[in-house]
Specification:
This protein is mostly helical. It contains 16 helices and no strands.
């Protein structure tokens, strides 16, 4: 269901929400199954997905994750614009703050949808029993189920979601922007000064071979790309590394190398491991490394068009015990 563990998880939530009623009705039919194990498992699953806390959580997650869905898609691109992603995160945080300020109105709309869905499966929104002292669950005082779930699930989830966005993106915005501005297409457009790189350089100071010469090196780097047409400027860190000299620009080469490896910490690298887990089954355990690599590349890069005739011609030219007859 979750090949890359980001966008597909959101799609899985959407699909489950769309199929919620058929799934619930199917589980209730399976409760009457003659097999005891099947009926018992179906009963457990049915009670779980029809509980008030489950359905409300499902609708909350689907609503909030929709805000960051474009961000997840952008972070999985090859030439990802990290500074633009950080700017988008700032906008997401503002939207979440707005939802938090109008939490009563926002949650009321969501709560009405949950009540409507539960009524279709002969259930109602129920509030847990409150006691004086609780250790294992929320014991939030409330006058109604809507107020209880808004205080116990909706508001805490908004706070946690916003804190994670700030921790993972906004706090590192100045570092990412400084690194990306070294790419010629951004460098010429923004014409940054060495002062704009100060925080970024100080953060990676221990990795730079000659920290003291960075300001002079940056001036030469800017002059290098002034005479290059805009359509020929490198637009990514990897492209820039391929056309620059490490000997002339050691500090910039080091910083661009760091920038080129930053997307590896997101979901791009996980795609190969997820693919390998699906491909290398016990039936393919004896296939060669070249074939396994080829299958993995085909699975990862599904958008690339493949010429079947060229594959057949290549396969027919390979040495075989039996002649390949076309």
């Amino acid at each position: 269901m979750c090949e890359t563990r980001c966008v597909e998880r959101h799609d899985s939530l959407l699909r489950f929400k769309e199929l919620y009623l058929p799934v619930t009705n199917t589980l209730r039919e399976l409760e009457q199954h003659h097999n005891l194990e099947t009926s018992k498992l179906a009963f457990q699953l049915s009670k779980t997905i029809t509980s008030s806390s489950f359905v409300i959580s499902l609708y909350i997650i689907e609503k909030i994750f929709a805000i960051t869905l474009p961000l997840c898609k952008s972070l999985q691109q090859i030439n990802v614009d990290l500074s633009e992603c950080c700017q988008y995160v700032n906008n997401c945080v503002k939207v979440i703050n707005s939802i938090h300020e109008n939490s009563e109105e926002e949650f009321h709309k969501l709560f009405l949808d949950v009540e409507n869905v539960l009524s279709l499966v002969d259930e109602t929104v129920k509030m847990p029993r409150l006691i004086r002292q609780s250790t294992y669950r929320n014991n939030i005082p409330a006058d109604s189920p809507e107020q209880y779930y808004r205080r116990s699930i909706f508001l805490p989830f908004l706070d946690y979601f916003k804190s994670q966005l700030i921790e993972r993106f906004i706090k590192h915005n100045y570092i990412i922007s400084g690194l990306q501005n070294l790419i010629p297409s951004f460098l010429i457009k923004l014409k940054p000064s060495s002062n704009e790189f100060k925080k970024c350089i100080d953060f990676y100071k221990s990795f730079l071979p000659t920290y003291e010469t960075f300001e002079s090196e940056l001036k030469v780097w800017v002059e290098k790309w002034k005479s290059v047409p805009d359509n020929e400027l490198p637009k990514s860190a990897i492209d820039t590394l391929g056309v620059m000299s490490k000997d002339f620009y050691p500090n910039i080469w080091c910083l661009l190398s760091i920038l080129a490896t930053l997307p590896v910490s997101t979901s791009s690298a996980e795609r190969s491991f997820s693919t390998l887990r699906r491909l290398k089954t016990y039936l393919r355990n004896s296939c060669s490394e070249d074939r396994l690599t080829g299958l993995a590349l085909l699975s990862v890069h599904r958008g690339i068009q493949i010429d079947i005739e060229e594959i057949i011609n290549t396969f027919s030219r390979m040495p075989r015990k039996v002649d390949f007859v076309l």
